[in-house]
Specification:
Number of domains: 2
Pfam family, one: ABC_tran
Number of helices: 9
Number of strands: 14
Family: Belongs to the ABC transporter superfamily.
InterPro entries: AAA+_ATPase, ABC_transporter-like_ATP-bd, ABC_transporter-like_CS, P-loop_NTPase
Largest sheet: 6 strands, mixed
CATH architecture of the largest domain: 3-Layer(aba) Sandwich
Keywords: ATP-binding, Cell membrane, Membrane, Nucleotide-binding, Transport
Organism: Duganella alba
Strand order of the largest sheet: 6-7-8-3-9-10
Strand content: 25-35%
Order of helices and strands: EEEHEEHEHHHEHEEEHEHEEEH
Length: about 290
């Protein structure tokens, strides 16, 4: 469905925000993972045709959307991380305005989407008075107006309460049954039960793309559990990558990322997806330090 071939985005003379990324994405939910500045937002902006790559190709159903951006724009839903509302419009008027821009002429669809994001009772309130979470939900609704074939959402659950996050994760999972959904997030729990693939970026490069189960499988025998005395903790955490520390009556229970047993008494622990991704991140960082 979507192909990225050697995509590069350069700012100035030497800053490569996206560095030679190649990726094939069929329908389904893809989680885009990486620290701030890893290049995730720049990559999504190029897919959404908001920014142009310096070099490389982005193909959607075989069409180069760099040369023909309308091939993507008519089939795209996009929710950026910073989403604003027009202060004088109600939620309903806001949706009607975006529906007109997108050529959507079905008033019933607007009402259905406001129900989906739990804003139907606030349809006639001015959106400027909404909480951050309510504005986020309105942004989600507008992104779905044109029933997009590709949905790109950047930090979609920021500001949502747990119930709303659960509802939205379920919605994205259902959309991903038949369409491509690209989700950028720092919250692993938002994607671990809905993403079929995870793409990890670091310093503009794509360093791994695989299924959640494969990342967990790869991290087995690299996550360790051990309990240490409180007085030994500070020195130990300077020597190894501590994933989790929890105080107990008999000491401090640690979960540690390490390619082999980090100290006497450590036993292998079944990694969570979050720990598996952190293990991957540490491996990338260590390899970069060795190369330097």
């Amino acid at each position: 469905m979507l192909e990225l071939r050697n995509v590069v985005k350069t700012f100035g003379k030497n800053v490569r925000a996206v560095d030679d990324v190649s990726l094939d994405l069929p329908a389904g939910v893809v989680g885009l993972i990486g620290h701030n500045g890893a290049g995730k937002t720049t990559l999504m902006q190029m897919i959404a045709t908001i920014a142009r790559p310096t070099s490389g190709q982005i193909l959607f159903d075989g069409v180069d959307i760099v040369k023909k951006p309308e091939a993507m724009r008519t089939r795209l839903g996009f929710l950026p991380q910073d989403f604003g509302v027009y202060p004088n419009l109600s939620a309903l008027e806001f949706m009607q305005y975006f529906a007109a821009l997108k050529g959507v002429r079905d008033p019933a669809r607007i009402r259905r989407l406001l129900e989906v994001v739990n804003l139907h009772d606030h349809a006639h309130r001015q959106a400027a008075g909404f909480s951050g979470g309510m504005k986020r939900r309105l942004g989600i609704a507008q992104a779905l107006l044109n029933d997009p074939d590709v949905l790109i959402v950047d930090e979609p659950t920021a500001g949502l309460d747990p119930e709303e996050r659960l509802r939205f994760r379920h919605l994205l999972s259902e959309i991903g049954f038949r369409k491509l959904v690209i989700v950028s997030t720092h919250i692993v729990s938002d994607i671990e039960n809905m993403a079929g693939r995870l793409a990890i970026m670091n310093q503009g490069r794509l360093v791994a793309c695989d299924t959640p189960d494969s990342f967990v499988q790869r991290a087995r025998n690299q996550v360790w559990s051990v309990t240490v005395a409180p007085e030994d903790y500070e020195a130990l955490r300077k020597q190894v990558q501590v994933l989790q520390a929890q105080r107990h009556a008999d000491g401090i229970m640690l979960r540690i990322a390490h390619p082999s047993s980090p100290l006497a008494g450590a036993v292998p622990a079944e990694p969570t997806l979050e720990e598996a991704l952190m293990t991957q991140r540490y491996a990338v960082r260590d390899n970069a330090e060795l190369a330097a």
